[in-house]
Amino acid sequence: MKLPDAISSPNSKRVKHAVKLRERRSRKTMGQFLVEGPQAVREALERHVELELPGQVPGIPDWVGSAADPQGAVIELFITEEAAAAHPEFVQAVKAYDIRWNIITEDVLAELSATVNSQGIVAGCEVLDVELSSVIDKETQLIVVLSQVRDPGNAGTIIRLADAAGADAVVLTSSSVDIYNDKAVRSTAGSLFHTPVVTGVGLAEVTELARSRGLQVLAADANERAHDVHNPWDTGLDLAARTTWVFGNEAWGMKDADLDLCDASAAVPIYGKAESLNLATAASVCIYESARNQRM
């Protein structure tokens, strides 16, 4: 397979455009973000195929857009010659779907990559945001809300959890981390391209809509001030019911005003001597307990 000449200068217009996407302000202005590594880029390309062929690929969820509404579409691929040899399917895919692509040198890769040991593949994609009203309706079973969650690793891992548990969507409030930063994207392990993501909304807006559509709203919070507290598997909670789980900040949990927006609270008990649980770990217990009960 004959490859085009490699872009060797970090000052290339295409490279400089892509490098800007490592900054939050540029991502917001351009409506684009970067994904890196074979797994994430593979997921992005598979979603691009779904966007190109609406109605022709089995199992495409309703929230996926069309080619004219390209949420998550791959805009451009940057790949080293070595990576192209290892993953010829990526070159075949971008050619088949007329996606702009470039062979790049290691120097250019160093400018684009946010990792120490890059695998030589970086793609620019359209952001994946969807409207809140499109993911909460009378059929919705399980919604995961991140309220003032600031750690990108936790946020990305919880999106991965939500995907694995079959949740309908993940919502990040306006005070939460930018899910399109490099660490958050990597932490989703490709699940960002599977699960609908809503960003930039207020918690009150989410809980009001969820309750109006028949979902209960549960807070995961271990603070003593939390009201009506249960274990996630407590018989006092009906986790077979349609549920919106709200997870708060890693350090201080949820504010009193935010707890008041929820119907009840759950705290994962600690039987040993650990001071606390990582947010994503606690979230996994709550999300999976709901998923398990809803499927029984």
Give a quick precis of the structure.
This protein has 296 residues and is an alpha/beta fold. It has helices spanning 13-20, 24-30, 38-52, 81-86, 88-96, 106-112, 152-165, 182-188, 203-212, 256-259, 279-295; strands at 32-36, 74-80, 100-104, 121-126, 142-146, 169-173, 197-201, 216-220, 229-230, 243-247, 264-266.
Q: What portion of residues belong to β-strands?
A: 15-25%
State the order of secondary-structure elements, H for helix, E for strand.
HHEHEHHEHEEHEHEHEEEHEH
Side by side, the strands of the main sheet go 7-6-5-10-8-11-9
Helix content: 25-40%
According to DSSP, the number of beta strands is 11
Large-scale geometry: elongated
- Radius of gyration of CA atoms, rounded to a whole number: 21 Å
Total helical segments? 11
Q: What are the defining features of this structure?
A:
296 residues; alpha/beta; four-stranded mixed β-sheet; 11 helices; elongated
Task: Provide structural commentary.
- Helix content is 35%, strand content 18%.
- The chain has eleven helices and eleven strands.
- It has helices at residues 13-20, 24-30, 38-52, 81-86, 88-96, 106-112, 152-165, 182-188, 203-212, 256-259, 279-295, and strands at 32-36, 74-80, 100-104, 121-126, 142-146, 169-173, 197-201, 216-220, 229-230, 243-247, 264-266.
- The strands form two sheets. Strands 7-6-5-10-8-11-9 form a seven-stranded parallel beta sheet, sandwiched between helices. It has a four-stranded mixed beta sheet with strand order 1-4-2-3.
- It is elongated and about 65 Å long.
- The chain starts with 12 loop residues before the first helix and ends with a helix.
- 44% of the residues are buried.
- Residues 54-69 have low confidence and may be disordered.
